[in-house]
């Protein structure tokens, strides 16, 4: 008989704070585990090979509008779910491919390489501000003062959002993101996310109109031109939804890569010293941070027809929880998976997912991590945690709400 686990446990406080002992237990059970018949999802898929297969196998689909309609979910009532369902994150195969092809042109490795000087400029500007906020050894919150601002400014640069408007985004995008977490959401969170969705839609509607009237040399102008030339390529709603999703997908994920990464390194002075001594190792550090403490721990998929995973049946229409965070710690795939080892070879983790929805911004996120971490460590050689980092309780966008650091030793009183 199949071993079953409980969704309540996965979503419980203990696992949310530290999911890794639970993941280790799942790995001892095999590649997949059945959930209880009363749970809304059929299975938890946690083994590396099984996760990789589910993400790539066309029988498993994202929870698009067709699925939500069949499940009787009234997603059209909410501005936030209208955007999520219209964006490529949840679009059905044909619509997905159309939008993805268009937006992927903005995120090719060549385009990302061209953005590097801007990433460095934004980094240095924010490091100056961080230095000021943390002068004389005053504790400063790394998340608010740096990690949550940098990715938002970088996406702003990528799209062509004017610099003066960029500081407006982080709080809206954060409120919008709250609905992405697995489990129940309060009406207050949903209402706030809808308001944020409305504000973001309003902003981009105006920006698109401004760029249509006076095109600039930026992505928003290029997308307006493509749409005006060939409206079949992208509907007006798809254009808006995908612009907003670029902000959301690239925001807290990258902020958490920086926050999780910094906390990990400060807690491991030996690994930190190696990176400080040789910044060319930054790319492998980023990969290991992503494997070890991924900013996203799971995805959901449903079966398009009756199928099986790891020998367990999944009926057509049933959903599975795909635990990429657990796959990254699968001992069958990674030797000594619970140790942080930036010198790992063949570190093909699943932090960016796999298959058709593989993260479109992976090259950009990698560049941000690779450029920013050494620069931060170089600028503040005495950086330490000013207090224990707060709890992380989210599995979808897993990171710290606050990460108090001291950039220099406190100045002793006279
Ligand atoms: C460390 C940072 C990041 C992580 C860990 C991350 C992770 C992910 C994951 C796991 C998915 C797939 C979800 C699924 O399979 O259902 C995804 C999709 C996506 N990501 Fe990222 N992401 C990061 C940064 C970025 C950045 C910087 C951008 C762009 C500015 C971006 C844009 C996207 C987009 C547009 C999608 C949707 C792709 C599709 O559905 O075809 N991401 N990301």
TrEMBL record:
Coiled coil: none
Pathway: Antibiotic biosynthesis; mycinamicin biosynthesis
Superkingdom of origin organism: Bacteria
Pfam families in alphabetical order: p450
The keyword Amino-acid biosynthesis is assigned to this record: no
Alphabetical keyword list: Antibiotic biosynthesis, Heme, Iron, Metal-binding, Monooxygenase, NADP, Oxidoreductase
GO biological process, one term: cholesterol catabolic process
GO molecular function (one): iron ion binding
InterPro entries: Cyt_P450, Cyt_P450_B, Cyt_P450_CS, Cyt_P450_sf
Membership in a protein family: Belongs to the cytochrome P450 family.
Entry protein name: Cytochrome P450
Taxonomy of the source species: Bacteria, Bacillati, Actinomycetota, Actinomycetes, Micromonosporales
């Amino acid at each position: 008989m199949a071993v079953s686990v409980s969704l309540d446990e996965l979503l419980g406080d203990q696992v949310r704070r530290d999911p890794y002992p639970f993941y280790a237990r799942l790995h001892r059970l095999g590649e997949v585990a059945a959930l209880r018949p009363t749970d809304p999802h059929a299975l938890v898929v946690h083994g590396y090979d099984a996760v990789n297969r589910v993400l790539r196998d066309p029988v498993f689909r994202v929870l698009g509008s067709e699925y939500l309609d069949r499940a009787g979910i009234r997603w059209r009532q909410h501005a936030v779910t209208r955007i999520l369902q219209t964006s490529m994150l949840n679009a059905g195969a044909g619509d997905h491919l159309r939008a993805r092809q268009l937006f992927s042109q903005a995120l090719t490795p060549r385009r990302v390489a061209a953005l590097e000087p801007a990433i460095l400029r934004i980094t240095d500007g924010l490091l100056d501000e961080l230095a000021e906020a943390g002068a004389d050894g005053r504790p400063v919150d790394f998340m608010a003062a740096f990690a949550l601002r940098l990715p938002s400014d970088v996406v702003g640069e990528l799209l062509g959002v004017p610099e003066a408007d960029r500081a407006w985004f982080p709080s809206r995008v954060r409120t919008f993101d709250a609905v992405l977490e697995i489990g129940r959401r309060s009406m207050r969170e949903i209402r706030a996310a809808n308001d944020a969705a409305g504000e973001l839609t309003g902003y981009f509607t105006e920006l698109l109109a401004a760029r249509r009237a006076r095109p600039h040399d930026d992505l928003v102008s290029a997308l307006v031109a493509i749409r005006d030339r060939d409206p079949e390529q992208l509907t007006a709603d798809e254009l808006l939804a995908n612009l907003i999703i670029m902000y959301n997908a690239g925001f807290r994920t990258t902020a958490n890569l920086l926050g999780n990464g910094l906390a990990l390194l400060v807690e491991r002075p030996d690994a930190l010293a190696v990176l400080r001594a040789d910044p060319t190792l930054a790319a492998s550090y980023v990969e290991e941070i992503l494997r070890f403490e991924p900013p996203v721990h799971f995805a959901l998929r449903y079966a398009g027809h009756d199928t099986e995973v790891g020998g367990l049946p999944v009926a057509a229409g049933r959903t599975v929880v795909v635990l990429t965070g657990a796959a990254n710690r699968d001992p069958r795939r990674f030797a000594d998976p619970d140790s942080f080892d930036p010198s790992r070879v063949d570190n093909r983790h699943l932090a960016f997912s796999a298959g058709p929805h593989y993260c479109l911004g992976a090259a950009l996120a990698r560049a941000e991590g690779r450029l920013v971490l050494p620069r931060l460590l170089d600028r503040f050689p005495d950086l330490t945690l000013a207090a224990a980092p707060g709890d992380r309780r989210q599995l979808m966008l897993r990171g710290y709400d606050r990460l108090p650091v001291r950039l220099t030793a406190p100045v002793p009183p006279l």
